[in-house]
Amino acid sequence: MSMLTVENAHTYYGNIHALKGINITIEKGEIVTLIGGNGAGKTTTLRTISGLLKPREGDITYEDESLLKYKAHEIVYKGISMVPEGRGVFARLTVTENLEMGAYSLSNKQDMGNNMERVFNLFPRLKERRSQLAGTLSGGEQQMLATGRALMADPRLLLMDEPSMGLAPVLVELIFETIEQINKTGVTILLVEQNALMALSIAHRGYVLQTGEIVISDTAQNLKDNPTVQKAYLGME
Amino acid sequence: MKKENFLWNSIKTGMLGGSIALFICLIGMTEVFSKRDVIEKVITLGQFVLLATSVMTGLIASRQTSQLVGENRSLHRLTAGLVAGLMTGVVLALFVLAGDKVNIRAVFLNATPGLYNILTFEKGVSGVWVLPVISAVSGLIGAAFLLLPQAAQKPLTQATLFLFFMALFSGLFRVVLINQGTNWEKIAKYLYGQTGVTSEGALIFFFAVVIISVLWSWRGQSVKTSVAHLPKGGKLTLRLLAFAAIGYVALGLPQVSGPFIAQVIVTVALFILMGLGLNITLGFAGLLDLGFVAFYAIGAYTVGLLTSYGPFGLQHISFWAAVPIAVLVAMAAGFVLGLPVLGVRGDYLAIATLGFGEIVRLLAGSDFLAKYFGGPQGVIGIQKPCLGVLEPFVKIDVPRVCNGIELGKPQDIYYVAVAAALLIAFVAWRLRESRLGRAWMAIREDEDVAEALGVNLIQTKLLAYMLGAAMAGLGGAIFATLIGSIFASSMQLIVSINVVSLIIVGGMGSIPGVIVGAIALIGLPELLREVSEFRYLLYGMTLIIMMLSKPEGLWPSQAAKRELHHVEASTEAEL
Ligand SMILES: Nc1ncnc2c1ncn2[C@@H]1O[C@H](COP(=O)(O)OP(=O)(O)O)[C@@H](O)[C@H]1O
Ligand SMILES: [Mg+2]
User: Fold this and answer.
1) pTM, whole model, 2 decimals?
2) Is the ipTM of this complex over 0.95?
């Protein structure tokens, strides 16, 4: 049984039909990427999985259980964390306070300390800046913080929304290395990206989303070789 | 800027300054302020405000010439100030001349003969030239001030502001000093007159501040370093001493200030209390609640109905027993009002809560519910708190005499309010550092992210709203016993606005900021009865100036300070 199954999900913003019946499956331990242009519905997909939006039709199954009966704030207790689009760090809280908020769903103080240690090992940069306000961090550091904050909750499934957005190429490289590293510790990852080349280079499988519909789904390697994908998303002729 | 242009520019600035001065005159401020002195027999508050306008105009005009270069630069700058100051005076003089010919008062009610007298220094139309001359000199002073070295500017500014402050509150300081005994009385009368400081006092205040300021800029840094190098114990002692001094003044002031000022101080204490409450809702959780007064009213009415001997009293229980009930009722009301509206965001929440505030006031004052709440007549005969050993906490039917110490005077209630404020400040401080406090701040920063991290939005917001309501209820409860009667008409929207403003002025989310804000926005205008007429004008100005120049507030929380002024060095380059 797959870890997560999105089945024929239709999500609306009022009358706007943003997701038109998409199907996605994610196996345990995978990195799955969801690529697509601006406004394709990538963010909407992640928000639907994490419960911030409810699909009007369809179902989402996670570890043999439908997620639809849970409220957004309960989903994190199931082991799903999100790194939101544009990082969404708490600007007027310090780095440490941001990370503590990440562990809001943990009941055990001990776990929080351990997780914080782990995050600091993954991003030593954050440790140096731990008493700095998150709003004063650079873009790359904010991305690290948002990722670290999501990891604080001990997720089994991590949803990442365009982590490379607005970062310099060196940093993008670094972030993607970290994503692979996180995946190696046993965290399953759904990675949303516009930077298709980078995403496909670390992912196992991928989906291409276009105006609310999945148009192609294949292994990462096949997607890289797919002429349509190459033309539309990899900038090749 | 070209050289030919700078004169024209100064004239324009001067006319703008003159328009502001004219505005001050036409809203009646000048005349009202002329009843007060800054320095007795030398300069009235009204004159001071007009002169200050000229000085500022001269200063600004002079600063605008800063691009000018060349050997005559200083001369140009002085000329600019002189011209601008002159123009300010000329605008007022033209107004006087026009007023001599046509009846301006038909449109502007405040263009009274009294105002013309002030502007012509009681000389009639023949004295119309005096003001432009004085204004020109003021403008020149403003320009000359800019030519001074920085080291001289600072002490002069500080001394002038201090003198002004001393003069504004001369009544308060005088009364306090006089109540200290005969020796002090002599000092008080030497320094302060009936309506302002004396000439001698002015000189003493001015030069004392100049000297202290100069000394401080000379030795201050080394004092700071030696304090910073004190051992931990020494620093703690210093801090405790400072707290003790503040505490001594705060607790002793109402005893020596007389009943009027005591009443003002209690009002300030009540607003501090409410400010601390709203600081949780607004400062911590970021929920703009404009109906705060509703909970204040609910707290007040609960205590009123439970303790009053008047016609609407339900139970004559003691004040002390009624207070916790009032707090709980306010909290319950917060729950009932909060549940439906906390789902809506931002601006809509402000409108919804504003509506609630009005509904509560209208219901309490309505004829429909008059048989419960007294309608427009309100609830009267509310008990004073009694410190007695045998104070019964149960209902009794006969009017009860207090066989202990009755806390009847405003000074007495003040201590009740201070105790309550301390308690609430402590609770707020503990909450801020708690898991709940963190969740509030996360919601304030980004609701969606907070929710995705596991924060139950409705529940957490509701708690912030209810705790804020509870504290407002406590404020209302103390207010009820302080005044002894409550009327729906005193539960106006403006109370809510005052509380929001004092939080903004003090510094959003900062606990000491609430205290500073309440003193600045509630205390000062109450003490200056001349000012109270223009209170909301000055409020608006203060808020705008604060937003532009010090958006983090007078005493900001550490975080806001760092964020807005980048005290913490930001990162090098990207990464
Ligand atoms: N809050 C919203 N209200 C209305 N429409 C929205 C909202 N958010 C997104 N949309 C619309 O839904 C579609 C998908 O958006 P989104 O999921 O943000 O795209 P992506 O993340 O792929 O760029 C777009 O057409 C967008 O305009
Ligand atoms: Mg998006």
Assistant:
1) 0.83
2) no
